Amino acid sequence: MSTIHVAVLTPESKKFEWRDITPNLKTLQGLVGGLIERVPVPETEEEASIYVNEEGKIHNLPVSAIWWYEGKPYDLLRGTLVVCGSGEDGQDTDLNPKLLEKIKEYITPFSQK
Q: Could you give phi then psi for residue 89, rounded to 5 degrees?
């Protein structure tokens, strides 16, 4: 199976880092540390998939990002985030760097100062 180029944000890194991964359920679950949940991001739902640990809040995982909506904080995302491109058939694909910049308007790394 081939690999895809994705962006990963961990609570420890405080920034998106590029990685090549095998696009399958086992890999995604390994990266987020459990069951996966897809987080929709306005204006990018058809082009990208953002995966988080479905039980991140239940297990009180560290905050990794702030999710913004209409210019205001909407939610806190916990644990590792994996951002993939999304193909016409719904399959995860390479993430375009320009699309990641658009996503950063809605999902910003959390930094407690």
A: -90, 5
pTM, to two decimals: 0.91
- Write the CA distances from 40 to 3, 20, 60, 68, integer angstroms: 23, 22, 21, 12
d(CA 38, CA 14): 20
State the number of CA atoms in the 13 A half-sphere of 46 facing the CB.
2
Tell me, what amino acid is at 44?
T
Tokens of 95: 């993430």
**Total number of domains in the chain:** 1
Nearest to 76 by CA among 45, 46, 111: 111
Q: What's the DSSP call for residue 42?
A: T
Reported as a single tens digit per residue, the pLDDT across 32-71 is 999 999 987 777 777 899 999 999 999 999 999 999 988 8
Q: How far apart are CA 14 and CA 1, in angstroms?
A: 30
Backbone angles phi, psi at 27, to 5 degrees: -65, -45
Domain containing 58: what range? 4-109
